[in-house]
Write a structure and sequence with these properties.
alpha+beta
């Protein structure tokens, strides 16, 4: 039952009372307990024949106690892996305070550590992260190997992580989505509401609208009021540290705590990280460390690469590049980007130093090693090489992140300097020290554009010079709220982006005089 204070915008409470609290990895388990599934053979055959078969009755055994359960395969592509992942639902009573348990095989990661490290790094930064522990799984007396028991994000999760609202609305983003935008493409599935389904999803529509169309001068303030922004930034830090990948297929969670009035993002499927050591790669292999920052934003060139790959593999689908409006707006906003960089550098000092990260890797390896040799699906040779692999990644990724930060925080050159959607005019300015030729550049009103036809005039802008352009001359129409991106068609990421909301008549968007990177609202005559 919600009190009256919860029916409006909330009370403004935050889940992070001390943002300066030290980053400390959670304690690592000291033993690997055994879970056993007792499953009728015809049920196992059903799952082998039909990976999408619905839940089936079975028995879960732990510490000598038997529990009636409903069992099914979990995941998407992982349903076809040799080492299957499972979803367990307890019929009568909860197990360790949980109604449902996810057993993740980690078959695609020879280190068995990447997803666990991601969740632990997030917990170390005091964000509500699914608790993940290793277990040994036995099915009908046959040892299936080491699994990761990852805490499900549901109402039990709200209780365990001390949300203010123990009946918060939990949403899960659709497949090929997590873009945090108020519309979806035909190839994307819709958001799923996991709690309070009868109340509709107006609250979700409202926050997605605010993420996308809040006027840039108000962005940091509005996001700070409506989202647990500090925690979201820490999620982006974790993504950068482990090279989290394929976020659009993660089915991550967005939770509306109606008492605080804020939204909390909880990531899922961290085993999609580019850090994972995939089957078929050789012992002694080199980890990939070049996932660009900031991940899943328009500054991330892998977004375009993923789009181009999908166009080739599934040309029948009308794809667009998939990226997060929220990540993009944070990455392109000077104030929010600066906060993100400070957090990233802090996390590298406190969590990602070679001694801290390496010690954690060694501890997990020592914990799992006695149980990995008999895992029928995993390579013990690769697992024994995993500490070297992960430490190599750690050292090289730190250097790569520093280079990326230098690139992304360098002063821009050509920028969108003003936008008047009322008068259908836009201005560009050269903030650099060298002349810039405009003839091969393009302005678009969709940051997910897939084709570029240069539409700027044959003009060279000298240092400090501006040019004022009419939308009609560019073949564009500026809506009252929308997005505008400046592209060099030879690059996969834009030179500049502006998301904008409705502004009063007689005002325009303009870069500040004191700080040309910050957007302000100005009078049309200024």
């Amino acid at each position: 039952m919600l009190c009256a204070c919860q029916l409006g915008e909330g009370n403004g409470a935050t889940m992070l009372p001390d943002p300066d609290a030290p980053f400390t990895l959670p304690p690592l388990q000291t033993t690997v307990e055994q879970y056993e599934l007792v499953v009728p053979e015809q049920t196992l055959k059903l799952f082998a024949d039909d990976v999408d078969a619905p839940e089936q009755p079975a028995v879960f055994v732990h510490d000598g106690k038997r529990h009636d359960i409903l069992l099914r395969l979990r995941g998407n592509s992982s349903r076809y892996w040799p080492k299957r992942s499972w979803r367990v639902e307890f019929v009568d009573n909860k197990f360790e305070g949980r109604k449902k348990v996810n057993l993740i095989s980690e078959w695609m990661d020879g280190t068995m550590m990447v997803e666990k490290l991601g969740f632990d790094l997030l917990a170390a930064m005091h964000a509500p992260s699914p608790v993940a522990k290793y277990v040994r799984l036995v099915i009908n007396g046959h040892y299936e190997g080491v699994y990761l028991d990852a805490e499900r994000v549901d109402k039990d999760f709200l209780d365990a992580h001390r949300f203010f609202d123990d009946d918060a609305s939990i949403y899960r983003c659709g497949r090929k989505d997590c873009e945090m935008k108020p519309w979806r493409a035909a190839f994307q599935s819709n958001w799923q509401k996991k709690t309070n389904e009868h109340e509709g999803r107006q609250e979700l529509d409202t926050i997605l609208e605010r993420i996308t169309f809040t006027p840039e001068p108000d962005l940091a303030s509005v996001l700070g009021q409506r989202i647990e922004l500090e925690l979201y930034l820490r999620t982006m830090v974790m993504d950068a540290l482990i090279s989290n990948n394929t976020t659009e297929d993660s089915r991550s969670y967005f939770i509306h705590d109606r008492i605080s009035g804020r939204w909390i993002y909880v990531p899922w499927d961290l085993n999609n990280s580019a850090l994972r050591w995939t089957p078929g790669s050789n012992v002694g292999g080199r980890p990939r460390i070049d996932r660009p920052m900031f991940g899943f934003s328009v500054t991330d060139s892998w977004v375009q690469a993923r789009y181009e790959e999908r166009v080739i593999t599934h040309p029948e689908i009308a794809w667009h590049p998939i990226s997060s409006n929220l990540n993009t707006r944070i990455a392109m906003n000077p104030e929010l980007r600066a906060r993100l960089v400070v957090l990233l550098e802090r996390a590298q000092r406190e969590l990602f130093q070679a001694d801290v990260f390496g010690a954690r890797v060694d501890a997990i390896h020592a914990l799992l090693r006695p149980h990995m040799a008999d895992d029928p699906y995993m390579s013990i040779e690769k697992f024994d090489d995993a500490p070297r692999y992960l430490k190599d990644y750690n050292a090289a990724r730190v250097e790569f992140i520093q280079a990326e930060l230098a690139r992304l925080t360098a002063p821009p050159t050509l920028v969108i300097s003003a936008l008047d959607p009322h008068q259908q005019r836009v201005a560009l300015k050269n903030l650099g020290a060298s002349p810039i030729e405009l003839r091969n550049l393009v302005l678009v009103t969709n940051v997910r554009s897939t084709t570029f036809s240069p539409n700027l005039p044959a003009r060279t802008l000298g240092p400090g010079e501006s040019i004022d352009l009419e939308a009609k001359a560019l073949g564009l129409t500026f809506s009252s709220k929308g997005e505008l991106a400046l592209f060099d068609p030879t690059r996969v990421t834009p030179l500049d982006v502006l998301f904008y909301g409705e502004i009063p008549s007689g005002t325009v968007y303009a870069r500040g005089e004191a700080d040309p990177l910050r957007w302000e609202l100005a009078d049309q005559d200024d």
